[in-house]
Amino acid sequence: MESMTLHRGRLIDHILLVVEDFEASKDFYTAVLSALEIPVITTANDYLLADELVVASRHSPEAAGKLTGRHHLAFQARDRDRVDAFYHAARTHGGRDNGAPGERHYHPGYYAAFVLDPQGKNIEAVYHGEAERSAGSVAISFTQ
Q1: Of 14-18, 34-38, 84-88, 122-126, which gets the smallest average pLDDT?
Q2: pLDDT band at 6 (very low <50, low <70, confident <90, very high)
Q3: What's the Cα-to-Cα distance from 52 to each of 8, 17, 42, 102, rounded to whole Å?
Q4: Residue 128: is it exposed, middle or buried by C-beta count within 10 angstroms (0-12/13-18/19+)?
Q5: CA 117 to chain centre
Q6: What's the chain's Rg over C-alpha atoms?
Q7: Coil, strand or helix: which one is 65?
């Protein structure tokens, strides 16, 4: 049996992105998650798991052979440097610019970068400015 610990935030439990080109997506998400200091927990022939995020091939059992509609995914970043690192990693690993790092109008201190992943999905890294968190994450441990 394998033991796993997942770290969950307060709003999103998990997101499944179904992709056509899994190898390109695996390279892209491994790089951008590394830039954000978020570890990839496991990868297999047809999926990647990183805490709340699952990226799966359309041929995986989770996708049942279907691609779904438009997606937007925003990763939390610890600071502006992590947003910048995300953008650089994304552009180096097949991502296309969809909004260079900078302040946005959503609220004061909203610093973000946007890229289109290899499948054209809108992916963001955002730092909301100085804020207090009750905890870095919630740890969920289990054995499978």
Answers
A1: 14-18
A2: low
A3: 6, 11, 12, 25
A4: middle
A5: 10
A6: 15
A7: coil
Structure tokens at 116: 């289109």
Task: Dump the DSSP string for 89-141.
Answer: HHHHTT-EESS-SEE-SSSTT-EEEEEE-TT--EEEEEE--S---S-S-EEEE
Count of domains for the chain: 1
Q: Judge whether 93 and 32 are in contact, CB under 8 Å.
A: yes
pTM of this prediction exceeds 0.85: no
Find the CATH number of the domain harbouring 135. 3.10.180.10
Q: In the 8-state DSSP scheme, what is residue 21?
A: -
Residue 101 has pLDDT above 80, yes or no: yes
Cα–Cα nearest to 100, from 83, 82, 121: 83
Expressed as residue numbers, the domain containing 104 is 3-143
Mean pLDDT of all residues in 102-106: 92
